[in-house]
Structures are given as C-alpha cells and as structure tokens.
Design brief:
alpha/beta; 41% helix
Length: 419
Amino acid sequence: MGRVYVIGVGMTKFDKPGKKPGDYHDWAKEAILKAFEDAKVSMGKIEQATAGYVYGDSTCGQRAIYEVGMTGIPIYNVNNNCSTGSTALYLAKQFIEGGLNDCVLAVGFEKMERGSLTNKFTDRTGPMDKHAILMSELAESTGAPFPSQVFGNAGIEHMRKYGTKPEHFAKIAYKNHKHSVNNPYSQFRDEYTMDQILNSPKIYGPLTKLQCCPTSDGAGAAVLASERFVRSHGLEAQAVEIVAMEMATDLQTTFTERSLMKIAGCDMTKTAAQRAYAKAGVGPDDVQVVELHDCFSTNELVTYEALGLCPPGKAGEYIDRGDNTYGGKHVVNPSGGLISKGHPLGATGLAQCAELCWQLRGLAEARQVPNVKYALQHNLGLGGAVVVTIYRIGFLEHYNRSVSLMRTKSEIEKLGSKL
C-alpha cells in the first residue's frame, strides 16, 4: 500500500444560506484553485476527482469541477450525509494508496436552505427510520428538529449516567465561539459569555441555540498525491501525510444496546478511532490538535470519550481542566468547529482537513497550536458513517529545513528594516 500525502488545501469562507454571492460551482472553483495554488499543480496533473455534496442533482460534481478544466478524467459524486466531505477524501486516498493514481482531487461543497435539516424524499422509507423508532422508545419525542433530538438525547443520557451538567456542554460552545474569533473563514466570529450561551433560546434537552451548528454555504478542497509525485515535484517541505484514515458504519450495538449515545454514533466513532490509532501506531496522548464534528455541543462531549481523549465518564472533568483548548492536553476545534465556522455538509470534512494541514505546517496564524506533531480529524454522518483520520508532517527533515530558511529570511528582513 502506497503512502498518501495532502499537498494542497483550499476553502471558501462559510456563510449563512442565501448570503454568499455566486452558486455552488463558483465556491467549488474558488476552493479548488486555492488548493491548486497551494499544491503548485494545475488541472492537467489531476488523474481522478471526487466531489462531495448532499443537496443537489446528480453530477453536480462535474458541473463544479468543469469550472477549472475539462480533461475527461473520472469524477465520482459522493453523498454520505454529514461525513460526505471526508468520504470524498477517503475515496481519493484509496485511489493513490492502491496505486491507481499519483495525483487526485477531492472537493466538497454545499448550497443549503435556511433552517434545520429535514428529509427531502417523503414518499419512501427514510434511512434513519430504525434509529428514530428506537429513540422514540427511549426518549420523549418533541417537535424539535430531529438531529437536535438525536444529539440532545445523547447528552441527556451522559448526564444521567455520569452526572454531567448543562454547564459542561455550554463550556464547549463557549470555547468554540471563542476559537472562531481568529478564523477568517468562519461563518460566525463572535465571542459569547456563558450566560449568553445558557440563556439563548432552548432547542432540546440541554441544547440552546448557541450550542447548535448553523446551516451554511461554502466549499473546501484538497489535492492528494503519492510519494513518487511529491518527490518528483519537490513538494516534500509542505506534504502532510495521511498516516491513518478509517471509516466505520453503524454496528449492531447501535440498536441492541438501547443506548441514546450509540444511536448518535458513539460506537462507530470508537471503532474507527481504534482502527486509526492502531494503523498509525499512536494513541490519543500523541495528538496535539483535533477537528471534531461538533454539530451540537453534546456530540463534542460524548465524542471526547469515544475518541479516547479522556476515559469514559470523565469528559466533564476533561472540560473543567481546560484540556480541550489552548494550554491543555489537546486543542479541540481551533477553527471554531461546526458550531461557529458553520456546516455546509459536503464541505465540512475538507475544511477540517485544511485546518489540520495548516496547523501541521505552521500556517494557522492566530489559531496556531504550538509543536503539532499529530493531528486528528473526526467527521460524523448519521445513518451512518464516521471517518477518523490521523495526519503528520510527511517529510520532517525537509519541513524543518524550510522552517529554518523562513526564519532566517524573516530575521534578515527585520535586520534590514533596522538598518
């Protein structure tokens, strides 16, 4: 199996539906061209492409990618609910890992409607009918949006089982809103007090409005390459290696153990994470920065434990110690996460990838986490699929040399200005 590297990333700013100029293909073009510029490649180098989106007619991927060139390459349209972006990335990685290609594009985009997510096809069985039936047996069903009930109930179960408080979920939202202030790509860049978060409109269970991600418009892209391509094009100094990438879907325990946290995907997250750690030869203590699928603050909390960032039942203590932010054990969602950055479904996984590549390459500016060696990505879609990815700098000796040269150049420029 060949090694796979991310050699370029790009994304648009995420915006409230209806506010972003242009259309989905314009946003995809912007993200792709930014990734191409970063990777120092053109469309002519791309051998295959994957395009992730949830809302749109068939072959929107072609319409989007045609904006940057029509070279006749295979283009695969991908839909895997909220994990669509990472699924597109996962397929692109497999093409290179399996030796089929040396350079592949993954792009994700979404043009969304305002308001909460709903089923679009009401004349057939929904993909989550079994999840919904079991949840109705375990918890009271209300008129709240279905996703908020799924993840709100997961939080309620955690509270009952471990004594977690509503303030713990609010602290997660506080953190993510605070992080987003430094992210120019974020849909929202406002900092809120704990009182503002706790007293914002109630949605379901412990969830208030400021603890829920918004719907969004936007796009993200990544260019992946083989080791041969990286070396032949002199891209070692910027190549980020995907050392492990695992996808998992629902297990029998989603239904047999009658757990609201498992309905929300905790078991498949745990399964994918364990596989990824084993493949990478590292553990959660080796990771410095995490982009985690915080569609709701409750999901971020239960996922800390599923990813092994803290022991089962200890997420509240993990939060209270500040282990999920700068100065703590891990920095979780330096981008602001879905809660603040936004959640255009097809783009989210690619945006997470971009943030972690910038963190590893030292390009995250005010969001930069110090001394990043390993980065972890978690992208979850109900129904279900989860993708867990571990990244590191691909060619450390080349990266260190590049950083040293940049520092020397900066010092020379500072000296010159003084003279």
